[in-house]
Amino acid sequence: MNKSSFHKYKGLLALLFAVGAGACSVPKHLETPPSVAVPVTATDTLDMTSFTQVFQDTHLKSLIDTALAANFDLLAAAQRVIAAQSQLRIARNAWLPTVNGVISASADKFGDYTMSGVGNFDTNLSPNIDKDQKVGVNPTPEFFVGFRSNWEIDLWGKIKAQKDAALSRYLSSAAGRKLLSTQVVAGVATFYYDLVALDNELVIIRRNISLQDAAVKTVSIQKDGGRATELAVQQFKAQLLSTQALENNVKQQITATENQLNALLGRLPQPIKRSTDAASVMPATLHKGIPGYMLLHRPDIQQAELDLAATKADVRAARAAFFPSLTITPYTGFNAFKAGLLFQPGSIAWGALGGLTTPVFNQKQLKSQYNISQANAMTAFYRYQQTIIDGYAEVATVMSKVENEQAVWLLKQQEVTTLQEAVSTANLLFTTGYANYLEVITAQKSVLEAELTLVNTRRNVYQGMITLYRALGGN
């Protein structure tokens, strides 16, 4: 290449050098550590048929339907899904050219010693043009009516990566709403069975109040007959007063739980309809083993996985920003320097500009943006791994809890039966003079505590099943 040719193409060579330098500084693709492997499912897995048949109470179903339709957190989550869906539509159409209808008017005062100024002066004096072609004035007006477009060609997949990120975030928002729905359903069921348990506690307490009141009357008669002391009467009365106070405490718990449930339903406090025997039957015994495929269907794990996919797409887009971008800018319409000539055939104009742009002096900014995207992706990856571990641990803990609580319930049933027989025996021995009043009081107190514990144990089993429903991502 001779010297004159070198000067002719030195601008192009400089541009090619800048492009090559920019390409050399492109970061490597993102690499993440190995993922946590979900343990192989045991042969004896969870029987979901019996599980889905546990919560069949009609009042509970009605409350869940109300919560899913009126819970304010769910309504807000639905709006977030709509927003993410709109972002996805924007990203999906980003590869298309933008076309804008334009109506513009301008005026330019050209300097006397500029190409435009000299050219317009010469044109106005030229004998080769007609009167419509003469500009005649300075400042010179210009009118345009037509269309202008801008189109970036996705050479390196930057726009596609942005679309992939938007799609993953949309799916993540949908998974987040499902997660929230599962939590709301679990919350409604928990409060509902808390109310049922409190109702049962109230029945037990009131039955014991009746028995203890009868005992006070009996010992008072025995005192009048000289067979009991005032101390015995006082002890029986104290026990009765303690149980009556317990009744009021349970009534307050019922009111507070109803208010909490109503708030979850998105409505003001009001009575909650519920069955009297909603928790009278224990759920079927669970089989051991965690179904790994169901664990991966948890909404929080799906959401974390989709967030990871979105951040990885962000990294690809940030990496593609290091490469040159090709932009085409065409236009067409009517263009004239006189409004009266604007829509004449001779005013039709069109043009196109193609440009290849490469970053040269903003490499540090691009590198910083890439580092931010990479850090976000690694953060999402570690969060995804931790979510899997937490989910597996939660399911394992809950299944163990349900199994152990069921065993406790069976033992407590036997304890209650034994203590109820002990109360009858103590009353009989007391009336015949073979037992003192302290033994009767102790027996009555023990059976009350055992009956209340039995109710709470049954509630714990149901709460375990509810937690398992949530831990497995709902159905």
Question: Would you write up a description of this structure?
Answer:
The chain is of the alpha+beta class and 475 residues long. The chain has two domains: 30-95 and 157-323 and 361-471, Up-down Bundle (Outer membrane efflux proteins (OEP)), CATH 1.20.1600; 100-153 and 324-357, Single Sheet (Outer membrane efflux proteins (OEP)), CATH 2.20.200.10. Helices cover 64% and strands 10% of the residues. The chain has a four-stranded antiparallel sheet, with no helix packed on it. α6 runs antiparallel to α9 (299-320) and α6 (158-224) runs antiparallel to α11. The longest helix has 69 residues, at 363-431. It is elongated and about 145 Å long.
How many strands in all? 4
Order of helices and strands: HHHHEHEHHHHEEHH
Share of residues in strands: 5-15%
Overall pLDDT metric: 77
Shape: elongated
CATH-defined superfamily of the largest domain: Outer membrane efflux proteins (OEP)
What would CATH call the class of the largest domain?
Answer: Mainly Alpha
Class per helix and strand makeup: alpha+beta
Uncertain segments of ≥5 residues (pLDDT<50)? 42-52
Question: What profile does the largest beta sheet have?
Answer: 4 strands, antiparallel
